Amino acid sequence: MAKIEDLALSIDKMKAANSIIRRMEKDGADDAAMIAAIVAQTGLSAEVAARGVVLADWQWKCGFDTAGSRAEIRRLQGRLKSLTRMQERGTQSQEVETQAGAVEIKENADLARIQMIFPGKPDEATRRALKANGFRWSPSQGAWQRHLNEAGRWAAERVMKAISAEGAA
What we know:
Layout: H1 2-27, H2 31-42, H3 46-53, H4 67-89, E1 92-98, E2 101-108, E3 113-117, H5 124-132, E4 136-138, E5 143-147, H6 150-168
Antiparallel strand pairs: 1-2, 2-3, 3-5, 4-5
Helix pairs in contact: 1-2, 1-4, 2-3, 5-6
């Protein structure tokens, strides 16, 4: 959360610096005067102020670009909400009995993964069903896993249906 607040604060400073740059460009001020004014009025460091004032070869106007930063703030806020919901739900685990034995389906909120833990190595058809539904083997976890979201939960159900249908056939 601190990163989002820091980013928002720096955007406000960059907007203020842009205002100073536009005003001083109209008055015909030189780069050094603009940098000094930005440092004095916004609290930005001299190096950061110089990045907004001194043009590089590829730049066509002075100032700071804040459009991407605002989008990044919105993206981080949405991600924070989804992670909070996931943590509130917590780690859940259930065992499902199949032809291959008891399969544990675990929603690991700490790793943000849905995991399927088999008693031994699954057969070729089961591994094919797991891979087709986006699961990948994780040796460090000893489980087949994919990202924990609604699509992952749905994929786990599809794999269980495929395993059950395979055993019934």
